[in-house]
Design goal:
Blueprint lengths: L9 H34 L2 H13 L4 E4 L3 H6 L7 E5 L7 E7 L9 H4 L1 H9 L3 E6 L10 H15 L1 H4 L1 E11 L1 H9 L6 H4 L6 E5 L7 H4 L5 H19 L5 H5 L14 E6 L11 H10 L4 E6 L17 H13 L1
Parallel strand pairs: 3-4, 3-5, 5-6, 6-7, 7-8
Antiparallel strand pairs: 1-2, 2-4
Helix pairs in contact: 2-5
């Protein structure tokens, strides 16, 4: 029983304060995580995305298939997990396209939350788009998601007439770890130039996981949030590079380190109450790097929102896609 009455030793008082701190910070962390799941469940538009996919299926216009050949898959069975979903617009017009990378911490792809709903909204706005399920978890390996992104772009280019899309002016759109993938692929060193694909006209990042070592650079008053940050980062490293990944490889995933004067224009948004990928340690670190290199950037921070909000329906962030698409269009001019 905690007792702070006079007469207790200094050691007992210190012990009691530590216990109170650990209990209260744990409760606050649990509240933040539970709130995140409740809020994102009501605003990420899962039903909206599924309805769009169901409509396309009923019309015979939904396309979803592996992008690697059977021979490639026979040589590497992990490639069978990579799928590309095509969401054509309803106008029949040839448009620029968006390639969407769902998040999931490189452990999995949350396609129904950050893939299909985003594609449905792009369709509603008149654009055809694609959702990529890249290699994650134990199917992943060194920079495998970047290789999958390159393969998807090459596949789209090869079938551009079938998909009725324009290659010039495309946009990459990624969320959380998918935002890390989009941000990395927008760089010359680890992206479009390395793999010989076209440079994106712009990138759109939702609460991106960009500053991988943020838990080392910024002390936490809440030890539980710090431990959660360490766990998420280490999990992503292990899936990407294996158990023996070195510091150089880890640092290579920090997007802000790869921003140059040729980096594409960037639109970002994040939640001010994001306990998984804190805006101050990720999106705002990347924003600073973009500003230093004078890259066109528009950043929105929605102060009362958590991680994983997707479309942000019925929240302050609901209009972010309209603003992001306007930014993309301006970058193409």
């Amino acid at each position: 029983m905690i007792n702070l009455m006079p007469g207790n030793s200094v050691g007992e008082i210190l012990y009691n304060f530590i216990v109170i701190y650990l209990v209260l910070s744990f409760v606050l962390t649990c509240y933040s995580v539970i709130r995140m799941y409740v809020v994102k469940h009501h605003c990420n538009g899962v039903k909206y995305g599924k309805a769009r996919m169901k409509t396309l299926v009923s019309q015979g216009r939904f396309f979803q298939k592996p992008i690697y050949s059977m021979e490639e898959i026979r040589r590497n069975k992990d490639l069978k997990t990579v799928r590309l979903s095509y969401f054509p617009n309803d106008t029949g017009e040839r448009t620029k396209f968006a390639l969407i990378f769902p998040g999931g911490g490189y452990a999995h792809c949350v396609t129904t939350e950050e893939g299909y709903p985003i594609a449905a909204k792009f369709n509603e706005m008149g654009y055809s788009c694609f959702v990529l399920e890249y290699r994650t978890g134990f199917h992943c390996s060194d920079y495998a998601p970047m290789e999958d992104a390159a393969k998807a772009l090459a596949y789209i280019e090869k079938h551009q007439d079938d998909f009725n899309v324009e290659l010039e002016g495309y946009v990459l759109c990624g969320f959380s770890a998918g935002g890390n993938l989009a941000g990395m692929y927008a760089s010359k060193e680890f992206g479009y130039e390395k793999y010989g694909t076209r440079k994106p006209a712009a990138i759109i990042l939702g609460y991106p996981w960009t500053n991988i070592f943020h838990w080392l650079d910024h002390p936490y008053w809440n030890v539980w949030k710090g431990l959660m940050g360490i766990w998420l980062s280490e999990r992503g490293f292990v899936y990407m590079f294996g158990w023996r990944c070195n510091r150089e490889k880890r640092e290579s995933l920090c997007v802000q380190n790869h921003v140059t004067e040729e980096y594409p224009p960037t639109y970002m948004f994040s939640g001010g109450r994001d306990v998984l990928v804190p805006a101050t340690h990720h999106a705002e670190v990347l924003e600073k790097a973009l500003d230093e290199h004078e890259i066109p950037c528009k950043y929105r921070r929605y102060y009362n929102l958590p991680h994983g909000i997707g479309l942000g329906l019925n929240t302050a962030a609901e209009g972010w896609m309209k603003e992001a698409v306007a930014f993309w269009e301006k970058a193409c001019k």
